[in-house]
Amino acid sequence: MNIQRIPLLVAVLLAAFLAACGAKTTTETKEAAQAPVPQRNTRTIAPPKEDPHWSYEVADGPSMWGKLSAKWKECAAGRSQSPIDIAKTSNAKLPALKAEFRPAELKIIHHEHMADVVNTGHSIQVNYTEGDKLKLGNEEFELLQYHFHSPSEHTVRGKHYPMEMHMVHRSADKKLAVVGVFIEEGATNPAFDSVWSNLPEARGVEHHLPNVKVDVNQLLPQKTNTYRYSGSLTTPPCSEDVQWVIMTTPIQMSASQIEKFRNILKGNNRPPQPLYSRAVVTEMASESVIQ
Fold first, then answer.
1. Peptide bond preceding 162: is omega within 30 degrees of 0, i.e. cis?
2. CATH 3.10.200.10 is the classification of domain 41-46+54-282
């Protein structure tokens, strides 16, 4: 090869290489522009300014909620507070409770819905705008949202479950009914996949899932026996006169699913509150101690 031609050859090869790189970069840019957009819309929600900050920590945690705001006095002074420890139950056939708590009268009607998944800073919450109904006796309640606590807020004979789901319903006259579902460690639960793959990690972040449908009925246990009692919200303002319906049979999530939630929020549970004179009723044996 002629030595004098080497610089010219190198220049030609370099020019060809740069041209190829430019074409590749243009192609990659075009492909990136045409790549499918993730099927969710994200926004940040500012926390309410009118209420004081609260948490599950010592300084502004559950033992302090009643002192943080006059609107939250029931958190400290209320005598029908939630959660509770479920230890002793009364049969649902008790006359005063029969009409309202008869097992056949509990009916949950669920449909598929699109969801908004938001990190409130206190829980991961899935919001709904319309659809699911809870019929408790002659009263009908609409599902507003469901959210999660870890470990469980309610306990059974002092036992916590790894997680608990609360499904918050409201009637036309603003009464509240909350369905509680214990979550134990076990098999992977595919019913939560669409939500669990979109868990917001930062407080105030909301993922709107316009093309993901969630069938709430799949989130519930197949056995429908329940514990029921009159209680309160488990977070400020701790409003009372909430009808609680706690499923006796837990559902399962895998260790990795539970861990994914706990990597974002853990210890977001209010301790059990005194039962006082309230009764917990169930479809199971009368005046029994839960085994």
1. no
2. yes
